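Figure caption, in words: inputs first, then the predicted bound structure.
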Amino acid sequence: MKYLVIGHPIAHSKSPQIHQAFAAQFNLLDFSYERCLAPLDGFAGLVAQFAEAGGAGANITLPFKEEAFRLCTKLTERAAAAGAVNTIKCVDGVLLGDNTDGAGLVADLLRHTGLAGKRVLLLGAGGAACGVLLPLLEQMPQSLTIANRSVARAMSLAEKFSGNIKIIAQAFDALEGEFDVIINATSASLSGEALPLAGSIFAKDCVAYDMMYGKGETPFMEQARLAGASQCIDGLGMLLGQAAEAFYVWTGLRADIVPVLAAMRAAL
Ligand code: ATR
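Bound structure (2'-monophosphoadenosine-5'-diphosphate present):
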């Protein structure tokens, strides 16, 4: 069975290492998973060629997740909600598009805290935030607030996803009260920037989660720790979680992320 991770750039991707470790847990000898650099204008052709040649599935990363969403002939509910596809399964000539990012985040969060009945704050309103909203809401938090530098973007996400749980959209400096779980889905950590957040929004037992990861603390994790958050977690577990969910979509097997996470953490 042949799988790919397709992106541009792609050399940095840790997905082959992760999926090969998962496959080894089940002794899947015919499981192959490779990196594939797609030309910026050649993504659709490459996927078609791969599927035609008997490819079983692919992970899709930057900048192709939205193009993959448009390309797939069938979508799961969570991919439709996310407006982006990170996992394709080739089934009898049909490209099934899925999105496992939100499931990966939720699975990793649940290893650290419950979400039901919690006051959840999501920071950011770009693709990363949009991709995780439906799985987060399915955990039935008491409330969900989206804060973003551009409030209009937060409002449009709130409008799209409000249902049983009403989503509140706000600017960072308008946030009031405390939150039990604060998730950073902005890309601010990439440029080493901290967000303009009041320390008072971190509840005493607050769990702070940065979707980014790296060696040591991200700026958001440091900010959360200084504000008294009880757990500050980076996104390495989410990376493993989304991969484990994709592996399950393809193989029906639930891989154990714990040993792979430990090995990757040690190698950071
Ligand atoms: P991604 O796919 O990573 O979500 P994106 O769609 O470009 O990428 O969204 C980036 C997110 O990070 C947005 O929420 C963006 O805020 P704006 O919508 O106001 O642009 C946020 N972001 C990026 N850099 C930031 C910074 N320095 N401070 C605050 N927010 C930032």
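The mean pLDDT is 97.
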